[in-house]
Design goal:
The chain has five domains: 258 residues, 3-Layer(aba) Sandwich (Rossmann fold); 113 residues, Translation factors (Elongation Factor Tu (Ef-tu), domain 3), CATH 2.40.30.10; 72 residues, Elongation Factor G (Translational Gtpase), domain 3 (Alpha-Beta Plaits), CATH 3.30.70; 113 residues, Ribosomal Protein S5, domain 2 (2-Layer Sandwich); 83 residues, 2-Layer Sandwich (Alpha-Beta Plaits), CATH 3.30.70. It is built from 18 helices and 35 strands. The strands form eight sheets. An eight-stranded antiparallel β-sheet has the order 16-15-21-12-13-20-17-18. Strands 2-3-1-4-5-9-6 form a seven-stranded mixed β-sheet, with helices on both faces. A hairpin with a 2-residue loop joins β17 and β18. It binds guanosine-5'-triphosphate and magnesium ion. Magnesium ion binds next to α2. The site of guanosine-5'-triphosphate has 20 residues, from α2.
Length: 685
Amino acid sequence: MSETSLDSRVSTIRTVALVGPAAAGKTLLLDALLAHAGAIPQAGSIERGSTVSDHDPLEKRLGHSLQSSLAHFTHGGIRVHAIDTPGAPDFIGQALPALEAADTAIVVINALNGIELMAQRLLAAAGERGLARLIVVNKIDCPDVDLAGLLTQIREVFGKECLPLNLPSDGAKRVADCFFAASGEADFSSVADAHRALVEQVVEVDAAFVDRYLTDGDVDPRELHAPLEQALREGHLIPVCFCSARTGAGVGELLSVIERLCPNPAEGNPPPFLEGKGTEPTPYPARPDPAGHVLAHVFKIVSDPYLGKLGVMRVHQGRVARGGQLFVGHARKPIRVGHLFMLQGSKHVDIDEALPGDLCAIAKVDDLAFDAVLHDAQEDEHIHLLPLDFPTPVHGLAISPARRGDEQKLWEVLARLVDEDPCLRIEQAGETHQTLVYGLGELHLRLLLERVRELYKGEIVTEPPRIAYRETVAAPAEGHYRHKKQSGGAGQFGEVYLRIEPLERGGGFEFVDAVKGGTIPGQFMPAVEKGVRSALASGVIAGYPLVDLRVIVYDGKHHSVDSKEIAFVTAGRRALIEAVRAARPLVLEPIVQVEITAPEHGIGDITGDLAARRGQVNGTRAAVPGSLVVQGLAPLAELASYQSRLNAMTAGEGRYTLLLSHYEAVPPNTQTALVGAYKGGEDPD
Ligand SMILES: Nc1nc2c(ncn2[C@@H]2O[C@H](COP(=O)(O)OP(=O)(O)OP(=O)(O)O)[C@@H](O)[C@H]2O)c(=O)[nH]1
Ligand SMILES: [Mg+2]
């Protein structure tokens, strides 16, 4: 196959991510697109659980997507890959990675609800990643929706670069194109005005076109392909389309927009690949050239009970072929691409090769992890994609098996589920051997537990959320420990003097070797640091990890025969414990940003309740008509089981999201209680 024909095949690929708030109609819209393109006989239904994308039994039961899901179709010679994503904030760990795989983000807005928080959040995230963005107003068939008002609101909230590419017409039974057509009938506004506004916005990116436009009064839109792509790339234009996934109005037109206007893999901004280790990697310009080295990025992991681990990836450069060999990140040993396929909902469609822009999957590769880069040249091992900014999971739960001895089995089930979702985290709690899982909210953890129960099959016990407290110090202090043991033959000897200093909040940990004259020989310093780190990890006064401090080791003693690594580990650990106890230790608690959406009449109760729980209200703003969004800060510990309290205050209509903001010292009485409850402390002997 010649290079030119391969390149022209890349230009016929479009990769889009459907993102936006829950219930906006993303999943139904994908089915409508698939049906319109002839990939399925007819669109399915959310209520009957018959869509391509919501294939998981739990998704069918709830009527919401919980995981991202892929589908593809061919129409008019163009291959379109689409990723449907869940809209609930707790599942944003499935939605954000779709932005790493797509060239265009289609932000779906529910005409019934207007602009919701998730639409804002995802439109901004897509802009930060440099994607072309398209806003789709869905559900235009619903009676009493104010589409003209919504369009005005979109331009107010998202900016003047949001311009309609089509307008509802014939009582929203169809839509009228405003880009290629210069006139037509619309339900509101005017096709001619919308056409003029679009052309003016697009020509602005290119001075030559501005001149032509000023001279001739119009430019044939078919000549505007290059400036239009540039305007999309630069965020100078965010087109708005209207449709109804239910009646099919505007669905064919959306398909044609994807084919004719959305960027192909070579027309979008290059993906933000970085090359190098350490703190200052340099940008790596990946090119969507099938003849280049392979660079493919794993943006989704699926743990299939029968097929093992599936890695779903976007090819960015080169050609991934069945039977070929690829390296996973730094791994020395290549993997063989035995089975290469594309996903159509739950179905696998075998393929021989995947080109830049294609989304494909490989199975049974245990080493694959989310965010891995696959490549076919060992020198590319340090290339990675700029990481996404995921919210930190702060909702914790302790899980243990009802039957003792099953801990490992339960851990394996959890680890598999955590692999699939970058916003879930598990850890083994210090001495208690409890397994802690952290997620973004109560819904997130509840659904995780449903899946754990299904896979683990045995009974599990959960305990109320555990707060991820931290310890720190408020003053500088000194610590010293001399470890000396003489038992029979060889002894153990190590002595450490150190000083600790508080760092600013968020400052982490610094270790400074200030030993002069080799009183602690260089080869023992790693042992001292190991001892210090082990004390930091297990905590000193309340059993929580120590943060925000600098440890300066400045003196010590060794013995030419009896000094051993283990002696310095112990001395480092004990010296640190002594210093921390003298440095006014504090327990810190997580403070979260909370956003509560609730009907107006419930707002007074909500703000009063927040203030009573050591919270602070920072502002209120309008959301969907009739409801308000309250923004504030509160200690996470005060928000345990918040959904049930919110339900009581809002007759079940309130919703909230939490994001970790920062850590602050707990009130003195809480500190006394936490320190008193801690039994794991060790006294230096
Ligand atoms: N009237 C009308 N209803 C629609 C339309 N599109 C979707 N719906 C309905 O809206 C509900 C939500 O649709 P989904 O496709 O599940 O929405 P989603 O955006 O995928 O939601 P999440 O998966 O939770 O993020 C379902 O009951 C759909 O039948 C539409 O254009 N008009
Ligand atoms: Mg969905």
